[in-house]
UniProtKB/TrEMBL annotation:
InterPro entries: ABC_BtuC-like, ABC_transptr_permease_BtuC. This is Putative ABC transporter permease protein. The keyword rRNA-binding does not apply. One of its GO terms (biological process) is siderophore-iron import into cell. It is a multi-pass membrane protein. The chain crosses the membrane at residues 39-58, 97-118, 127-147, 153-173, 185-205, 211-229, 236-256, 276-302, 314-333, 345-364. It is found in: Cell membrane. GO terms for cellular component: plasma membrane.
């Protein structure tokens, strides 16, 4: 392999394993038309905070944003507010909005990582089969009363057990003849997901409780209705820690996105990296699905929208995707709980109706190819 080609390749992946002084210039690192990370990341952070504050005003009873600000201020030493305002904003809506932020960020980050792991533009977090495993666990809890002794945690506990079992199954099969490869992981995850989805459907069909069947269907399409302060901290901590762990590998992810040969030429332990990424993805997706159900679209499209805005470098893609995914899901939840009130729409219905046209519009306005090149 010519030396010049190797040097060009190392520059292309952004000096993944080099000190910061060896990183390429911004012109070499990002195609024309991308937004500067120094501008887009602070802007996205502001949008996310404003989205969360505004979302607290929406519900069965609309509240002025000033009232929302007063309630939040009262929780941190400000003047007291009425008991009803405190109960509505802080007791009911705040956990739901914060959970939406965590789940949206987690799914978007997971989507960006899984697309890099399997090098497939159509990959999303549900490809791993973890979501289908969680669906089986949740369906079993709803239709059979499994883990009834766990109380309000029964559904999340059952979903997490199902997700863990599916992750172990997929990992075991995918590594039977060596390490994980993109093709083997895609095939194993797809087949496992299909089998587990069939089991979940069977559990629904065999139940005589129409209310349970309706609850399963609603959960399978995603909802934040079960949000509470007690259930909030686990997903928030998981998203923060695992996103930080993945971000620490951003240089290796850049190299992996360029291809396994490029990554190997840089001395990256590809097999170990893939195993670690699978474990992180399984834990991240399993936790998100356990608390919110299987929300479609977010993990598939948000990473692509992010790359259109900031390019393909993972040190920017990961935080930007987290912020975009968080804001997107918060507003999706606002639409889901207010558009047909008092009836609530499953989140996957809204993500498809709103997100698909938006993505097609962005795709039509800007030439885009997976990997960030335009």
């Amino acid at each position: 392999m010519p030396r010049g080609w190797i040097g060009h390749t190392m520059n292309a992946v952004g000096g993944a394993l080099s000190p910061p002084t060896h990183l390429p210039s911004p012109k070499a690192g990002a195609p024309r038309g991308r937004l500067s990370p120094g501008i887009v990341l602070p802007a996205l952070l502001v949008v996310t905070v404003l989205s969360a504050v505004c979302a607290l005003a929406f519900g069965s009873e609309m509240l002025p944003v000033s009232t929302v600000v007063d309630v939040v201020h009262s929780r941190f030493g400000g003047p007291p507010v009425t008991r009803s305002e405190l109960a509505i904003v802080w007791g009911i809506r705040a956990p739901r909005v914060l959970l939406g932020l965590a789940v949206g960020a987690g799914l978007a980050v997971a989507g960006a990582v899984v697309q890099t792991l399997v090098r497939n533009a159509l990959a999303d977090p549900h490809l791993l089969g973890v979501s289908s495993g969680a669906s089986v666990g949740a369906t079993a809890v709803i239709t059979t009363g499994l883990f009834a002794g766990a109380g309000v945690w029964a559904l999340s506990f059952g979903a997490m057990i199902g997700a863990l079992g599916a992750a172990i199954l997929v990992f075991t099969i995918a590594t039977l003849q060596g390490g994980i490869t993109p093709l083997r992981l895609v095939l194993t995850g797809t087949v496992t997901a299909s089998a587990l989805s069939a089991i979940a459907s069977f559990l629904v069909l065999r139940t005589n409780d129409s209310q349970a069947a309706q609850s399963v269907l609603f959960w399978l399409l995603g909802s934040l209705a079960g949000a509470s302060w007690d259930k909030l901290w686990a997903p928030v901590i998981v998203v923060f820690l695992l996103t930080a762990a993945v971000f620490a590998l951003h240089g290796w992810l850049d190299a992996l996105a360029a291809g396994p040969d490029v990554a190997a030429s840089l001395g990256i332990p590809i097999r170990t990296l893939r195993n670690v990424l699978f474990g992180v993805l399984a834990a991240l997706v399993g936790t998100m699905v356990a608390v919110s159900g299987a929300i479609a679209f977010v993990g598939l499209v948000i990473p692509h929208v992010t790359r259109m805005l900031v390019g393909a470098r993972h040190r920017v893609v990961l935080p930007a995707a987290a912020l975009i995914g968080a804001s997107f899901l918060v507003w999706v939840d606002v639409v889901a709980r207010t558009s047909l009130r008092p009836t609530e729409i499953p989140l996957s219905v809204v993500t498809g109706v709103i997100g698909a046209p938006l993505f097609l519009l962005l795709l039509g306005r800007r030439r885009y190819r997976f990997g960030g090149s335009s």
